[in-house]
Specification:
160 residues, alpha+beta, Protein Transport Mog1p, Chain A, 7-stranded antiparallel β-sheet, 4-stranded antiparallel β-sheet, 11 strands
Amino acid sequence: MLALAQAGKKTIYAFKNKFSIEIPDDVDTMTAEQVQTKYHKNKDPKIFYYANQDLSFSIVISAIAEDILEADMIKHKDELAKDFAVKGVKLDKNEVRQIGDHDVIVVSFSSDTPDSKILNRRFFAVAGGKLIMGTFNCTESESRTRLPQIDESINSIQIK
């Protein structure tokens, strides 16, 4: 479900409205064909997929665990970042941000593809007892514009 926020952004409400985030308004829900093209997998109806028209900037949001407390998520901050210790992925930052009254883990990492470098920012938050993971990625050529938008989006997270 989408609603217009301030100019240039739209708000996504998810997980029974326990979670919301503002995203740039030039991204739309990805079709099954776009998900298959970009991620080489079938679209999962429980995952929220968004991208710009040429798929060079995308956002994926999903619940990855249930019955989680925010304090437990914070205790496992470094374990959540271990997934990035794979060949070709460079972990740039692993931090906790205070957003509203909630702690949100933000992990920045990059990877090389045959065509370009991909910059990623992932967040972890707890909403309604679910561990929410969101991943933003863009090409290095778009990073000057997109990284500030990504930070604005992450900082707009609201949890009820």
